[in-house]
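Human: I would love a firmer grasp of how sequence relates to backbone shape in proteins. Could you go through the record with me and say what the backbone is doing? Here is the record:
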Amino acid sequence: MPPSASCRGIPAALSLLAVWAAVARAEEPPRRLTPVEATQRGEARIDPMRPVRLTAEERARLYDQAARDAEPLEQQAMQLRRLASLLKPTVVHIDATKRLARPRSGRVTEDEAGSGVIVEVAGRTVVITNRHVVNGADLDAIAVRLDDGRELVPRRSWSDAGTDIAVLELEGDDLPAARVAANDTLQIGDTVLAIGSPFGLAHSVTLGIVSAKGRRDLELGEGAVRFQDFIQTDAAINPGNSGGPLVNLRGEVVGLNTAIASNSGGSEGIGFAIPMPMVMFVAEQLVAHGAVARAYLGVALDRDFTADEAGRLGMVRPVGARVEAVTGGAPAAKAGVRPDDVVLEFDGRPIEDDDHLMSVVGMTAVDRTVTIVLFRNRERIELQIPVARRTDFE
């Protein structure tokens, strides 16, 4: 009798295969297991899982495969070890004893620890760190500990509240300087290392990527950091990392670690670093002149440039910085900037929003004439503006 087309929904061919497999198993003798050990009474003990475990030959073969597959990963690890060795002598630990504006519980001082990086600025070897690490401390109350164990007291210090950057001048021999990235080529997704003294653990190295760029309008400290353009990274940054370098895979410093976003007070994968173009702009002016001279336009900007406002001006979306008012006699007024103009570019840089424009202008040298691109009456127009010193107006 021919087999039926199906048996309880199972195709005939599969049913026959199942029968043949069952017959084959029935004819196959049970697999005997060798004893693993014997009890004191001589009874054999069996490991029932032994047949599914790796044999010595299989383990050796897997070790060989693991060694081959590890080679490309080891090349990456070798580069990280190389960078750690290269950068370690350029990173310092900083201890500062600060005077308290208001004594607490009978204490008139407090201690703060942070990090810094040795660089060459205007022909001098200096340590760059965050202002909040050393602000309020006398020079003789600041100890800079080098990788070789030396402790130096800075000869001089400068700081800029607008960016939270401080520069310490050291006097000593054999102070290796880190290499600073020449161009702002850092991109989201780039691999970076953060080096510093988290919780006082000097020369700790963590690895991550650039999570975002251009983070602005962050609430830092007492709100004194006006000029912001932060790099965001998930490389672990903790208290004590402030002032330490953020480094790319070429060993070049691309940022100065400054702050974290955290509910716990420790790293939660959201750290912020000041980009080195901003750091070096400030540091060079501090070393050369003792203060930062910033450019000034003289415009009040729309802090809430909405899609409705953009539509009223004939734009498909809000982009750039809308001018709400112009200060009389300021560079913008002299150049012909008007309320409702939207600044699209400043000195060749596309402008994202009002905070971005404020940051870009604040990092522009004075006594220069710059080109700005405006959106006005549904057209793009260019104006030449000789910028002034901010201190002349504020």
In short: Residues 43 and 77 are 52 Å apart (CA to CA).
